[in-house]
Amino acid sequence: MGTVVLYASVSVDGFVADDDDRPGPLFDWLSNGDVPLDDSGVLTVSQASYDHIRPYWDRIGVTVVGRHVFDMTDGWDGKPPGGVDHVVVVTHRPAAEGWDPGAPFHLVDGVEAAVATAQELAGDRVVEVAAGEVGGQVLAAGLVDEVRMDVVPVVLGSGKRFFGSVHAPHLLEDPDVGIRGDRVLHLRYRVRRRPI
């Protein structure tokens, strides 16, 4: 099974978007460098960010998101973002009418079933879980192996929390990666498996 990673860009006060679901400057680091991150020509980062992010992105086999993100992006027009092979969507509702049943999106009820489906699809590749409500639920279920965050030097004040509405403490190991990019700090923590 591949590693399950909770991931997002985040403000220093712990938000992945403002109250209206806008990321504001959280993604500015993805376009302020001179090294192309992918073939789109849109994403350009510092060399330090590229050296950290590109190998990680190349290992992602499946992304798990909530229905809210899926609907906000219009299902990425049926094409998984970032070249990922599959997207597993945690939802209690069926796909919208007219949705292409051949698109590599899998609508699953509940986070445990979503992670199981994602791991089956990913094989030994990474299962990435989008931070926010669903990410917090996956963490609370004890299914996250590591937390990755791209910390951006901005304070949003309020909004959508990185860990969603998690209400119990969860210990992480000391950060084993800390890389300074241009206007971003890339961090990685392993999730501690023993109780607090």
Walkthrough of the structure:
The chain has helices at 47-59, 67-72, 111-122, 133-140, and strands spanning 4-11, 15-17, 35-36, 44-45, 60-66, 86-90, 105-108, 126-130, 146-152, 160-161, 177-181, 184-190. 33% of the residues are buried. The strands form three sheets. An eight-stranded mixed sheet has the order 7-6-5-8-1-9-12-11, sandwiched between helices. A two-stranded antiparallel sheet has the order 2-10. A two-stranded antiparallel ribbon has the order 3-4. The chain has one domain: Dihydrofolate Reductase, subunit A. The chain is of the alpha/beta class. It is built from four helices and twelve strands. Helices cover 20% and strands 29% of the residues. A hairpin with a 7-residue loop joins strand 3 and strand 4 (44-45). The two termini are 26 Å apart. The chain is globular, with a radius of gyration of 16 Å. The longest helix has 13 residues, at 47-59.
